Amino acid sequence: MSQEKTAVPGLGDGFSANPKSKLYSRSSTQVNYVNNSAGTIVPGMEQMAPGAKIKDPKDGNSSPVVGFLYSISRQGIGEYWPVHLGTNKIGRSEECSICLRENTVSDLHAELYVKQMKTTHKILASLKDVGSKNGIFVNDEELDYSTHECFNNDLITIGLNYKLLLILIDAESLGLSVSENFMAVQEEEEPEIPFQPQNTGFNPYDHNRRPTTGTVAMDGSQGTEPGGTRFM
C-alpha cells in the first residue's frame, strides 16, 4: 500500500516535514479534553455500526489531549479517539483508552506512549506491541516487540482490519491557545413548580350531591347552562 500525505482541514500547514516518512513531524502544547474509550462517534453511528458504544466521558483520562487516532474501518462513516499525554492502551477490552471492537484485535494489543519535551514542547510518540496475536503495521512496515517511533500522519494497522491515522497537533504553530476573555454560557435551569391538587370534597360519582343544571366539571364546578350548544 502506498502511503500518501493525508491533508486534515486546519492542520495541513501546521507541521514541518518529517524526513523519515515524508509526512509531518510532531509538537504540541497542552489542550484539555475528555477521553472516550469507545471512540467518539458521529451522529447516527450508534445505530449503523455494530458494537459501537458511547461511554460516559466522566470515566475518561484527564491528561491533556495532543492528538487523535482516526479510522473509517468500521463502516466508513468515521470514528476517532483522543490521544493523551502518557500511556494510551490500545485493544479490544473496554478497559483500554482506545477500544477497538474487532475480532482480530487482542484484548490488550499495543501501547502508544506520548510525551512532551519541556524545553522544545515537541511531542514524541512511540508504539509498542505488548503481545498481540495478529501484530501491528506502521506504514506497511510490520513491527516486532520493540518500541517504534511514530510521527504525525502515520498509518497504523492494529490486527488485520483496523487502520488508524495518527494525528498529532502542534497547537502553538497553528495559533491555538487559551482565550483570556473566554466567556462560558451559564445554563439557567427552569424552576420546578410542584403539582398541588385541589381538594374540593366533590365526588363526581355521588349522585345524591350532583347538580341538576348545566355541565359539571370533575372538581364540582358549575359549567355551561343547559339549553343548546354555544358557538364562539
UniProtKB/TrEMBL annotation:
Pfam families: FHA (PF00498)
Disordered as annotated region, ranges: 213-232
Domain FHA: residue ranges: 88-143
InterPro entries in UniProt: FHA_dom, SMAD_FHA_dom_sf
Name assigned to this protein: FHA domain-containing protein
Organism: Phocaeicola barnesiae
